[in-house]
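Human: Here is a favour to ask of a fellow structure person. Comparing notes only helps if you start from a blank page. I am asking you to supply a protein in sequence and structure-token form. Write it directly below this note and I will take it from there.

Assistant:
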Amino acid sequence: MTGKIQAPASSGEAADYVTVTVGEAKFGLPIARVHDVFRPNSITPVPLAPPEVVGLLNLRGRVVTALCLRRRLGLPASDRNAMGMAVGLEQAGETFGLVVDAVGEVLRPAADTREAVPSNLDPRWRGLASGVHRLDGCLLVVLDVDALLAFGPAAEAA
């Protein structure tokens, strides 16, 4: 299953997010940064790669780096055997597949629900988040895609 994401017409200051879940947590990826949503068939491991790099996968004939959001956030491994879903992101001409537990809907929360990153947010997440939205019954943590994709030597330089 592969699908191209089409951004709805924007209005006002509200932003659109593709929602993903990892465990019980809900995250938002800015829709402008999301290119694909797909189910990875197989991932080829890469020896000596950083822990968040789970390997390489084929996305419509392109070899892309597969990153595990669970590992990137410092969460324990899932009990589930299924691969989950992946979100295609691009940065500096390179494509990444962000492996997540599930992909949800496209949300456009009201601009007045957005807040700065709370000081009590897990320290491993604070540097990867650009803000939060307090929604009915849950917190949507908005991920900073640039920070998320800066790992290994790139993260140390930043």
